[in-house]
Amino acid sequence: MNEFELIRRYFERPAPSAMLGVGDDAALLQVKEGKVLAVSTDMLVCGTHFFADADPYLLGHKTLAVNLSDMAAMGAQPCWATLSIAMPRVDEAWLEKFSAGFFALANLHGVELVGGDTTRGPLSFCVTIMGEVDASLALKRSGARVCDEIWVSGNLGDAALALAHLEGKILLAQDEFDACAHALHRPEPRVALGQSLAGIATGAIDISDGLLADLGHMLDASNVGAEIDFESIPVSQTMRKHLGEEIARRCILAGGDDYELCFTAPASRHDDVQAIGMQLTCIGRIVQGAGCIVRDGEELLVLESGGYDHFE
């Protein structure tokens, strides 16, 4: 099977909202009147972001999910994506499952694949996702203001706890690992939440590298500081069982791979946030200054690292 046969069989799908989709030198896209184009790119590399024996269906899901999470953080409606794949050889059964996972999530969110590339090399994926958003309502990292409340969606740390188990850093019972593994292998991008926050949130970011690291990006962009109440951070029952272990705290604050949203909103909009109708938790507030202070009762928590960095 050559490159073009591979693309036609596994990745060529109708793209009715595009003026021109897969099959030409470039796609032609038309953004709706009054909208701007939101664009984001993410790579997943074998050995860095996933194990070589990862389930291909779940890997297809996650490859798109991490990009959808960026659209969610901007409050954008995802529309189109390109997918580039490097692989050491063609495995048709593997590609069938990978593409099924990718397109199942794409169909759920109305995303059309409009281009990409394939090449021989170490297994890796690169998605560029494009969406539409009203320029005046786009959520940015730079909007946090002093006295805003800090919120997060879902539970934090489960994906990192599952990874720590796989790496032998902590031992989970099988039922505990199964409960956390879903967060690691099949994250749920908060696209609908991002759009619901339009006009309510002052800033947002998705939690991909860890709460402290990603919140830190918001603080730097907004020139503010933050105070976090560790006990307020939402965690699963499995995580709660292990809170006495240092690695559990690290998973919650700096583990990464959560793909939940962290956002800020004025205290006066507290009820509006709660009315959105999903698990959203206020964990702290924006303050003057710089950096983030994490309090666990009277104790100040200090971590050696704020989150994942590819080059450290």
Itemize the secondary structure elements and their pairings.
Elements: H1 3-10, E1 36-45, H2 56-74, E2 77-87, H3 92-109, E3 112-120, E4 124-133, E5 149-153, H4 158-166, H5 174-185, H6 191-196, E6 203-207, H7 211-222, E7 225-229, H8 237-241, H9 246-254, E8 260-265, H10 270-274, E9 280-287, E10 291-296, E11 299-301
Parallel strand pairs: 2-3, 7-10
Antiparallel strand pairs: 1-4, 2-4, 5-8, 5-9, 6-8, 7-9, 10-11
Helix pairs in contact: 2-3, 4-5, 4-9
Summarize the structure in words.
The protein is of the alpha+beta class. It has 2 domains: 131 residues, 60s Ribosomal Protein L30, Chain: A; 161 residues, PurM-like C-terminal domain (Phosphoribosyl-aminoimidazole Synthetase, Chain A, domain 2). The chain is 33% helix and 25% strand. Strands 6-8-5-9-7-10-11 form a 7-stranded mixed sheet, with helices on both faces. It has a 4-stranded mixed sheet with strand order 1-4-2-3, covered by helices on one side. Helix 3 links the parallel strand 2 and strand 3. The longest helix has 19 residues. The chain is globular, with a radius of gyration of 20 Å. The C terminus is likely disordered.
Order of strands, main sheet, comes to 6-8-5-9-7-10-11
Write down the domain tally. 2
Order of helices and strands: HEHEHEEEHHHEHEHHEHEEE
By secondary-structure content and strand pairing, the structural class works out as alpha+beta
Any low-confidence stretches, pLDDT <50, length ≥5?
308-312
Specify the biggest β-sheet: 7 strands, mixed
Helix content: 25-40%
Outline, from the CA principal axes? Answer: globular
Query: What portion of the residues fall into strands of 2 or more residues?
Result: 25-35%
Name of the CATH superfamily of the largest domain = PurM-like C-terminal domain
User: Which CATH-level-2 architecture of the largest domain?
Assistant: Alpha-Beta Complex
The assembly state of the depicted protein chains is: single chain
Count of runs of 4 or more consecutive helical residues: 10
- Rg from Cα: 20 Å
Strand runs, count? 11
- The N- and C-terminal alpha carbons lie at a distance of 39 Å
CATH class identity of the largest domain: Alpha Beta
As for the CATH topology of the largest domain, it is Phosphoribosyl-aminoimidazole Synthetase, Chain A, domain 2
